[in-house]
Amino acid sequence: MSKPQAQPIVRVEALHKHYHMGGEDLHVLRGVDLTVGRGEWLAVLGASGSGKSTLLHLIGGLDTPDEGNVYFDGQSVFELPLPKRDRFRNQHCGFVFQFYHLLPELNVLENTMLTGMIGTRPAALRERAAELLERVGLTERLKHKPKQLSGGERQRVAIARALINGPDLLLADEPTGNLDRKTGEHILDLFSELHAGGQTIIMVTHDAQIADRSNRELTLDGGRLAAVATTAE
Amino acid sequence: MYKLLLTFRYLRRKLIPLFALAAVALCVAMLITVISIMGGFVDHMTNAGSKLMGDVRLSTGAEGFPHYEQLIDELKKLPEVEAAAVQVKTWGLLKTPSERTLVVEVVGVRPDEINRVTNYSETVYWTEDRLAEQRERYRENKARYDELERRFLKLKDRYAAADEQRKAELLEQLRKIDDEQRDLRFNVIGLTQVFDAYAGVDPESLAMSLNVAEGFEKPANPRPAYGMAVGIEVNTANMRHEDGSYNILRPWIGQRLPLTVLPLTSAGNVSQTGAESLDFVVVNELHSGLFDTDSKRVYVPFDVLQEMLQMQQAELVDEMDPTKVVDTSPARASSIMVKAAPDVSPEQLREAVSRQYAQFQQPYSDLLPEPYMSIVTWKQLLSDLIRTVQNEKNLMLFLFMGISGVSVILIFVIFYMTVKEKTRDIGTLRALGASQSGIASIFLMYAGVIGVIGAVIGAVIAVLIVRNINEIHTWLGNGFGACVVIVGAPLALGLLYAAVAATHLVLRAMFDWSARTTYLRTTLIGLPTGLLMMVVANLLVWLVTGDAKLVGSINRQLVQLTGISPPQSPVLAYALSAGVVAVALAALFAVIEGQMIVIDLRLGHRSKAKAAAMFVLGVVAAAVGLAVVFLGVDNLTAQLNEALGITIWDRRVYFFDRIPTNMKTHEVLIICFLALFASLCGALIPALRASFTDPVETLRYE
Ligand SMILES: Nc1ncnc2c1ncn2[C@@H]1O[C@H](COP(=O)(O)OP(=O)(O)OP(=O)(O)O)[C@@H](O)[C@H]1O
Ligand SMILES: [Mg+2]
Predict the structure, then answer these.
(1) Which residues of chain A approach chain B closer than 8 Å at the C-beta?
(2) Could you write out the three-class secondary structure of B153-182?
(3) Structural domains in chain A?
(4) Which of A171, A190, B222, B371 is the most exposed place for a label (fewest CB within 10 A)?
(5) Confidence at residue B407, expressed as pLDDT on a 0 to 100 scale
(6) Is the pLDDT of residue B507 over 60?
(7) A228: distance to nearest CA of chain B, Å?
(8) Greater model confidence, B614 or B117
(9) What pLDDT, on a 0 to 100 scale, did the predictor assign at position B125?
(10) What mean pLDDT do residues A147-159 have?
(11) Is B675 left (phi over 0), alpha (psi -120 to 50) or beta?
C-alpha cells in the first residue's frame, strides 16, 4: 500500500519524551523516527497510553521533546522561538481532536473562522468558512452554537476549522473515538475526500479497522514506531 | 481580531463580569462623591469663614472695649490691613408677629463699613432679582390656588344637593382640596405682603442703610423706628426647600418687632436702668448659608444698638439738671473685624495686628493688654470644626482606599475564576496557533472594557449623587434614616438571599456533601491580603502626612468600629485593626465566592459539592462578619453617621445649611483612570496565568 515518498513534508528524528511524576520516570517516546511525504494519509496505531497523542502534539509543536527534533519542510520546529512556533502551527498544521474542542461562546461559522482570525486574516475568510461548512454539509447550521449540534456535526465543524488556513498537514487525534460507527464512517469518508484532494493527514487511532482507511499504517509500541505489516502477523 | 471577538463574547455570556463592573462602578462613584463633598466642604469653609467674619477679629467680653475709633485708624495704617469694621454684639429677645419671644444674637453694624470686611451685601436675601423670581412663583401658586378654589366651589354646590352617602364622600374631597390650599394661601398672602412692602423701594439699599424708607412700613406708623435685617432662618415660617430656595409663608418684611437687650456697664455689670426695648422694622433678610448664623442673628444700626446698650460716649448728666455734666465715659464696641490685604495670610495679619495693638494700648489705662484682648484669625475661631473635618477626611480616605483595594481583589478573584473555567478553551486556542501574548491580551482587554465601562457608569452615578446630594440627604433623613439604609438594607437583602440560596442548595446538594479544601484558598487569601492592605495603607498615610499619631488614631477608630474598646498602645491598636480588616476581608471573599458559585450553579456549571461546600463556608464567614457588625452595631451606625455625613447633616454641627460639593473634572478623570488601572492590575496575574496554560495538559481531557 505504501509508496515511495517524493517530497517529505515532516521528518521526525530520534524523538524522546519523558514524563516525571512523583519521582517516577515515564519514558513514553524512546526514539521515534518518521518521515511523512506530501499527500500521504498516515495512520498511527497503538494501545491506550502508548504515546500516540504525545507524538501528535510534538509534531504540531504544541509540546517540546526531551531529545530529537521535528523538521517541517526542512525547518526545525523546535529551533523556532515560541511565538513563531505558534504562528507556524496556525499556518501549517490543522488539529482535530477526539472531543472536538469547539468554543461554546462562538457559533458554527465563528468557530470555523477562528483559526483564520488568529494570525494574518486571509482574504474572504467568511466566504471560505461558509464554503468549507458547505463541503462538510453544515450550510443550514451556520448560526448554531456547538451545544445545539450532535457529536458528528461538531467534529465536522472542527475539521472545517482545521482546514480554514489551508494547512499543509492535518493532525487528527482519534477523530472518530467519540462517535458511533456510522457517524465515524462519514468522518472518514470526509478524510478520504480530503486525501484525494492532496491533503496530507496524520491520524492517530487505536482501532485497526479505522486505520485501514489510510494509505499507510504504523504502530507505536514500546515508545517506537514500527510498520504494521512487519510486526503484526 | 479573535481577541476582540472573544472579549465581547465573554462579556456577553456571563453574569460574572457584571459583578466586576458593579464593583468598579461603585468604587468610582464612592470616591468621586467623597472627594467632591470633601472638596466642597473645604472650599466652602475657606470661603465662608473669612467672608463671614473677616480674617482677624479683636474682641473682649460683652462689656466691650473703648477707643475703637482710634484703634481702627491705627490698624488701617498697617500695609497688611485692607479694611476694618467695628461691631457691637449682644444677646437680645425678639418678639415675633405671632407673639413668640426668640433669643437672638443682635449685631450692631455700619453696613457700608462691614461690607468692606465681610460679604454682608452678598447675603442680602431680598433683591430685585429675587422679587422677580418670587413673583413668578406667586403667579404659579395663585393660578393653582384659583383652580382649587373653582373646584372647591363646584363640589360645594354638589354637596348641597347630594344624598347622605355621597355627602361623606364629597366632604372628604373638599377637605383634601382645603388642605392643599392652606400652604398656597399662606404663600400667596405672604408674598403679597412682601411685594406691597417693597413697592417703589429698593430692598438692597434698605439692607445697606438699615433705615426705614418712607412709605415702606404699612400701615404707616407715626412713631419712628429703625431698620433691622434678620437671618432668614430666624423666621421659622420661611420653609427651606431641598433645592435651597425658600417657601415664604408668613413673612416679617415691613413688620415692626420689639427687641429687648440688657445694657452692661464698662465694668460688666447690669446697668441700673435695666433692660432696654425698642421697635425695629424688618427691612430685609440675610442668607449667608451658615445655618448657625442664619438662624440666630439680626443686624441693626451700630449707633442705635450702642445707645441701647449704653455703650456710646456718654456725658452722664444730672437727672434734675440736664445741663450739668456729672461724668463722661468713652464709647465702647464689642469687636473689630479686620480684612487682610491681598496676598496676606490671616496668620500674618494677626501678627501685625497684635504688634500694633500692643503699642496702641500702652497709653490707655482702660484698655486691656493683648492676651486679654482676644485677637484671633477666623481659622482659630473655627479650629474645632476644621480639625474635625480634617480627621474625618483622613479616615474617609483611608476607608475608601481600603474599599478600592477590595475591588482590585474582587476583579482578581473574578478573573482568576474565569480563567480557570476557560482553561480548556485557552488550550484549544493555543493549539490553533494563538500566542501566549494573544491569550493574555484577551483577558487584559476584558479587564480594560470592564474598567472603562465601570468608570463611566461610576462617574455618571457620582454626578447624579453629587448633584442631588441634598435631596438624597433629606430623603435619607426623612424617609428611612441612614441606619436603615446602610445597615438594615444589606442585612435584609443578605438574609433574604441566604434563605433562598440555602433552600435551593440544600435541595440540590443533599446527596453530595464533600467539602473541597481547594476552595478554602480564596477565603484564606483574604487574611494575608487584609494584613498587607493595612500595612500598605498605614505606610501610605504615614508617608503622605508624616504624622505617626494620626496613623495610631486611625487604627484606633477602625478598632472602635467593631465595638471592641481600642487599646491605648498604637502598636496593639495597629495589630488589632489589621486583624479586623483581615477577618472582614476573608469573610467578604467567602461570601463573594459563594455567590458566584450559586450563580454558576444556576447556570448549570460546576459540581454541586463544591457549591455546597462554598456556600457553607460563605455562610459561616458571613456569620462571623455579621457578628462583628452586630457586636458593634451602635458604634458602627454612630461612626457611619459621622464618617459618611449623610444621615444627619446636622446643620448646627456642620455650619452650612446645605451639603457643599465641588466636583473637579481633573479629579474625576484621575479616579476614572485609576479605576481602569486598578482593573488591569487585578486582571494581570490571572491573564499571565492564562497565557502560561499548558495546552497539552488541557487537551488530554474531555
Ligand atoms: N503530563 C503528564 N504527566 C504524566 N504522565 C503523562 C502526562 N501526559 C501523558 N502522560 C502519560 O504518557 C503516556 C502517553 O500518553 P498519551 O496521551 O500520549 O497516550 P495515548 O497513546 O494518546 O493514549 P490514548 O489512546 O488513551 O489517548 C500515558 O501513559 C500517560 O499517562
Ligand atoms: Mg490519546
Answers:
(1) 53, 57, 60, 62-63, 82-83, 86-91, 93, 95, 97-99, 101-106, 110, 114-115, 117-119, 121, 161
(2) HHHHHHHHHCCHHHHHHHHHHHHHHHHHHH
(3) 8-227 (3.40.50.300)
(4) B222
(5) 78
(6) no
(7) 26
(8) B117
(9) 92
(10) 91
(11) alpha
